[in-house]
Fold:
Amino acid sequence: MSYADNPYAAPGYTFAAQAAADERAGFIAKTYAHLAGAIVAFIAIEAVLLNTPGIENLVGLMLGTRYGWLVVLGLFMVVSWIADSWAQSPVSPTKQYWGLGLFVVAEAVIFVPLLFIAQRVDANIIPLAGFTTLVLFSVLTAIVMFTRRDFSFLRTVLLFGGFAAMGLIVVSILFNFALGPIFTYAMIALACGYILYDTSNVLHHYRIGQHIAAALALFAAVALLFWYIVRLFLASRR
Structure:
């Protein structure tokens, strides 16, 4: 979501696309610096969690029953909404940082079961998935940066795709059936679409000063891509 869509946006903020070249470059640099910081923080938190004695108990609690995972997903969605609303605050930079930090912590926690399993199936899955995610993200970012194309037309497709995916996930949990490889590939494509969309928003639709919210949106897309690439490699090892 950009300030263009945010009714609480400060009226004095200038769209990055309309700002002076140096101001726009500074905004983009801040956005990706905060994205890098979020990724580093995620890796650090995940490393601590996965190496915490008794972490298998948390994994068992989260995955012990199908309804347990449904509760975890519900809580994650609520926390994500709160984090995003904080990151969108036009009047409080501190609140924006709290939003980004809360979202990073929430992502780290929800990733624990997946990475715990991947670590025990094959220790190479996580670094390989991380590298693949980085390569795909870099390619998609380069496409937007070099073409300067506005991918905002993807918004409706991504919105409906996201709701459809969440619906399938909930149904699969309730009725206890596995979502196969086609779903995984579709979610990787959806994540790539989000990266194109959010990157083009950085160039065209975010306002100067909204670099923290922009970094959160990009981090969410990267995390989604990483999740399903891990799942893809995990499925190939089984």
About this structure: The chain has one domain: 21-237. The helical segments are 21-50, 55-63, 66-87, 93-121, 125-147, 155-174, 181-204, 211-237. Confidence is low (pLDDT under 50) at residues 1-12. Residues 21-50 form the longest helix (30 residues).
